[in-house]
Design goal:
single chain, mainly alpha, 77% helix, 0% strand, globular
């Protein structure tokens, strides 16, 4: 079992950034607008952009980025097969360190698995 807690990490990041969001509201609003614009549907789909962002987060060793982009990829209908292919590219481009971060992405994916329907 992984010690990586993607859901807890996202909660902690959001809580820790709350005062910064207030004190630097213009910066955070600008960051949010940039994110929205960069991730919008265009010639490249929003889902593919999330896969790219996840790959960058993995190769930059950013656990928070991994958690948030796995969550977004799931929201956009990403599949485990797509995740695995993105992770394979990360391992190819980042070697062993990419493989270690890929483990975090897998743990995040599994932690965010929807609960089974009652009676299923």
């Amino acid at each position: 079992m992984s010690s990586y807690d993607a859901v807890g990490l996202m909660k902690s990041i959001n809580e820790n950034l709350a005062p910064f969001r207030k004190s630097q509201s213009e910066v955070m609003t600008g960051f949010g607008q940039m994110s929205k614009a960069a991730m919008a549907e265009g010639a490249v789909s929003a889902k593919h952009k999330e896969m790219i962002a996840l790959a960058i987060g993995i190769t930059q060793h950013c656990s928070g980025c991994i958690a948030f982009h796995v969550k977004a990829l799931r929201r956009l209908g990403g599949t485990r097969a797509e995740l695995d292919e993105v992770l394979a590219l990360c391992v190819y481009m980042a070697g062993g360190p990419g493989l270690m971060e890929a483990a975090e992405a897998i743990a995040a994916w599994e932690a965010m698995e929807p609960a089974p329907s009652p009676g299923a």
